[in-house]
Fold:
Amino acid sequence: MPGTARECSSDIGKRYTNIYHIGTNVQFGTFYLRKMLTRFNDDIELAIKAYNAGPNYVAKVLAKEYRNYPEETKGYSIKVLKYLGEYRVQFN
Structure:
């Protein structure tokens, strides 16, 4: 998302350019995931949901302002956690 890319750009101190450039996309994406992990105390599931739906949405679910996550976020987090589990089995 362009707003998230600008936020990462500012945080990293890198000029916001082309987020479709592979290197920039990976750098910003990994930085943002680390930021979400830090914000949610290294809770991987919450960080993944925040990466997809946004940290404010996750905070609202935790505060019971929202009942649940969007279906896309639920599916996304299930897939990512599944791949993480497979990666850990294969490479640990």
Remarks:
- Residues 12 and 26 are 13 Å apart (CA to CA).
